[in-house]
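Bench log, entry 3. Co-assembly request; chain sequences pasted below exactly as received.
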Amino acid sequence: MTAETIISARNVVKAFGQGAAAVRALDDVSLDILRGEFFTLLGPSGCGKTTLLRLIAGFEMPTGGQILLDGADITTLPPNRRPVNTVFQSYALFPHLTVAQNVAFGLQMLGKPAAEVKATTARMLALVKLDHLAGRKTAQLSGGQQQRVALARALAPQPKVLLLDEPLSALDLKLRKEMQVELKRLQIETGITFVFVTHDQEEALTMSDRIGVMSNGKLQQVGTAKDIYTRPRNRFVASFIGETNFLTGTAEDDALRIAGGARIPVPGLRAGGAATVTVRPEQLRLGPPAEGGLPATVRDLVYFGTDTHCHLLLEDGTELVARLQSPASGEAGFVTGQKVGLRFAEGAVQKVEE
Amino acid sequence: MSPAELRETRRSARNGWLLSTPALILLFCAAAGPLLIVVIYSFLAPGKYGNVEWQFSTAGWVGILWTKDIFDETWHLADAHLAIFWRSVSLSLLTTLFTFLVGFPTAWFIATRPANHRAFWLFLITIPFWTNLLIRTYAINEVLRKEGLVNTVLIKLHVLSEPLDMLYGPFAIFVGMTYVYLPLMVLPLFASIDRFDMKLLEAGHDLYASRWQLLRRVILPIVKPGIIAGSILVFVPSLGAYVTPRVLGGGKQMMIGNFIELQFGQGRNWPLGAALSMTLLIVVTVALLVYVRYAGRDGDARHG
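Structure output for the full assembly:
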């Protein structure tokens, strides 16, 4: 598929409140979402991800900037004139209508002929596997079923983009896992662009084609799950997605000099000033001190089943965590207090901005 | 069931009856008893100076719709009675409609205020209840009369040259009843709108509904229980209103309430008054049953 932009946010600013008390929920966000992709906006609560979604849906007007859909400016269009539908966190199903009537609602409002409304509704209910509940009132459904009705209702008018506002957060863990698979299936089957908002990094990593990480109203990094995990741009992204270690020191050519005087190779780093690098716990290798590497002391070992977390103390007092695969015996082969030599897997150490 | 369980069940049933006896006695004396007296009186003959003659007669019931010509003793349809019934029903329906048209935006306004301001607005709505109905009705009289507030202001503003004659007629009764019964419409509407999930407006708007369609297809069906409750609370007392038509209708424009009062007073026809009271009760009950039935048919279980 060619990378064609379907939604484009240009320098979008959204401030709530007036004058000095105004809070910038979105601070100059520019973003391109591609046709047919599963795009996730990921960030902690209050980072502005839901605000951005509401601006795309038309529930809020931006304080500044533009939003384009298929190249057309939709910044000031009301929600009922945007070919975009939303799945709400609370589902917001119509309590006075049956499941089928809920799904048919958008089609009826668009003035589609009755036969088409009926056929599309039936098709959508089959798609989310709820055909047998078409006549029920929504209050009689379980959380997972309500979720499916909300999806079918939003997909029925065949929007150009489907917006999903933390739709899985009200479900229990098992159902959430099922729905993750289900959502991905629906996205592939319908070919509709999904914009998914979540604070759950695992959800983001497993479902998305691309992820936009947000914090404090700013877009921190956009990329594939692998990009963001292996090459985080800054400290926030590195720490928000997965667990990680940070080392600070002075930048030298292709290396970082840390406080204890030790030199850690970082290809691509250029000399000058302070620098921070990050390395994921699973990229740390431990060996006997005699084999070289960064001298460290094992402070604690925590057994997690598949792997063991080894808390290490460097000579300058920096704490690091190494994730070691547990051997068959269950013993990590290290004991607390033991001196070890620490190495990093090739290419695992990444420079990050503060 | 074991014998012990059986004994326990019997004992709790007996205690239940025993405990509800005072309530049952009160219910009989205060509700069923008086009603029974009215039913009995409606089947007796009128006494010469009020009261009743203890002999069976259907004259009271026949008199609701028919009247005997005083000259040739033939029976005619009682036009005056029909006019009173029609006036009562039409004014009550009109009052219900207008209290809804005014009450709905009011209730919506209150329900959409911040939670800590709502109590204040509701308090304002209930303030008129603190004043005697008669005084409130005379206040409306003061507003509508020829030298009253409305006419004075409109003449001062040169909108009118002659004062409007608004008092003592259906219009004045309608204005008075709308004013008096408005809170009874606002409060149940507020309770219903307060429970309305505003997210549904976004959902509907997102699904291509215009504002008008949102009102018709989403808001009104969901707050329907409140509309029904408010309509009943306004329509029923309007139909039997006495003070308002008395003060603002000027005695000529009677409603059923005044008509009934007349039978027990100057009319000296207690059986007719009793039959009229029963008719009013039956009409209201049937109307309510039909209304509740219709409303309950596709009403939402959650709002019941």
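Residues 299-304 of chain B have pLDDT under 50 and may be disordered. The first helix of chain B runs from residue 3 to 42.
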